[in-house]
Amino acid sequence: MQRCPDCDEVLTSQHINLQEGVALCPACGQLSRLAEVNLGERSVSEILSQPVTGCTVKQEGQGIRVTASMH
Question: What is the pTM of this model?
Fold first, then answer.
């Protein structure tokens, strides 16, 4: 499953132009290169809300800081 890198909306094959190498998000209208498209069944917010043991997730303004323990 492909997702918009800006708003995390699911992108279907209708939204992807392989010949041009881009995807157009139907929700936010963002045009993204296919290399920037997120791949996964779960949304980014779902993944970040359940960090694995040893990791912390903190939202900082428009960004997110993920820290991992080396132990």
Answer: 0.65
